Amino acid sequence: MKNIIYLDHAAATPLDPLVLKSMEPYFTEKFYNPSATYLLAQAVQKDLEIARSAIANILGSKPSEIIFTAGGTEANNLAIKGIMEQFPLSNVVLSAIEHDSVMQPGKQYKHKIAPVGLDGIIDTDKLLDIIDDQTVLLSIMYCNNEVGSVQPIHRIATALEAVKKARLLKGNNLPLYFHSDAAQAGNYLDMHVARLGLDLMTINGGKIYGPKQSGALFVKTGIVLRPQILGGGQEFGIRSGTENVAADIGLAKALNISQGIRHEETQRLGQLQSMFMELLNNKIPGIVINGSLKYRLANNIHITLPGQDNERILMLLDEAGILAAAGSACSASQEEPSHVLKAMGISESDAQSSIRLTMGRQTDQSSIKRVVDVLSSLSI
Known about the structure:
With 380 residues, the protein is an alpha/beta fold.
């Protein structure tokens, strides 16, 4: 289908041709199981470790702290379950706008929900009030997949250090770990775990122009996770199963490319975002732009068209060759309004009148102008 304008990059990104090229040998002549003992297999194992080291270099971590997974969902589950199964009497604190791959495993244990404001940003003071002496894990996403809000991860990490010191003074030796789902961050934000102050962090290749079902979990040295997949003991015994070498190589390449161009791409998309918002406000009376205007991913536009049905709007856009979404693709089939918008204080009716438009590397000014023209011409 020609003249498609794709504005759902938060759901999936196309595979970068350079990433595909890096992966191709591992489907054919380098297909060997890296756990095998013969030399050709060990060469593949070496390539896998080079990819692991490349990711570690970007994250500012040790290679041994990078655990390859089959995507962000598995990494999030491994982080939450891997910690919480060891501390059944303790609780986990989640932000109210977490992706379901954090929210659902987190709710299997004793848990508390930290609120966000209308801008989709967590209130650090309220968060600290929720943490108690039995909290062992905090999971706050780096940036939201629906409204693009970027959380103050470093500030939260700094505050947690004070909590840890206060605990020790009281003789409470329970650890307090900080995990962040950074699936949406790789294209636009700093991923250096030490600067962020994280103990665990999820990355997802399918959101950064890498292959779907590729991902990794950063696990700080000294943290013990209970494995969720048992078998041959691959990935330092934390995640068993023959490594998907092609996907892991692709993930490393995609992250390297994304981080290499993130500053210029953030600036370019930020300019498009400003133009997009201005055109929407000028041409569509009553439109509401949701989320923080200051602390927001540069590619995200989330709008409410009061009184309208978002499914109808998305269908009309689709007919016009414009692909967008109402929210997370992982829960698009659910009839319930977005829990993210609900947590932000947006009414159910407004939530069902809202759509998400997420730009990417191929988005340009002409695309944005066409989208606004189409939206303004619809019977809304």
